[in-house]
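FAQ: What does the model actually see?

It sees only this:
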Amino acid sequence: MEGNPTKPNKRLSEMTLEELWHLFPIQLVEHNSEWTSQFHEEKEHLKSILHDKKIVSISHIGSTAIKGIWSKPIVDILIEIDADENIQEVAELLVRKGYISMCSSENRISLNKGYTPEGFTDRVFHIHLRFSGDNVEIKFRNYLNTHPEIAKNYEALKLSLWKQYEFDRDGYTNAKSKFVLAVNELCKGYSGI
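And it is asked to produce this:
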């Protein structure tokens, strides 16, 4: 993936949100089977970093985990930790190993890998660190993978929003939220695959 470097002499932490959105625009590409391999390789890397932490599961989520639909070429990974694990300590360990902390709340921390002041690297990952059970994205993924017509509707929505929100990641996410919430309602009680 290529970024649109606006100010490569700045550190990412020094850039405004607008500069970041221009450096890392929304890009959608056809589904790539390599995303599954990339997930498995990164999962093994994460397991080696977090070997002494109480990890419940590491899952491939997001559109790259949904068969056959266009997606941003960013592999989303959900790490669920045990309830008595210190989420801040887990995040700090990942930061020490090169992941970038993006945002956090008491029970959720988002990190990424593959963002540089020059743009995206060849492999980009979003890490979603959560406590075990905070995983609606897994049901969403499973539901769309077993309901390809709904997955194609999701793809059509994403494609229709792409250029409008190319440089506005929050706007893109918000514009998809009604669809995502509707599918999440369908997922309630759905065991998936």
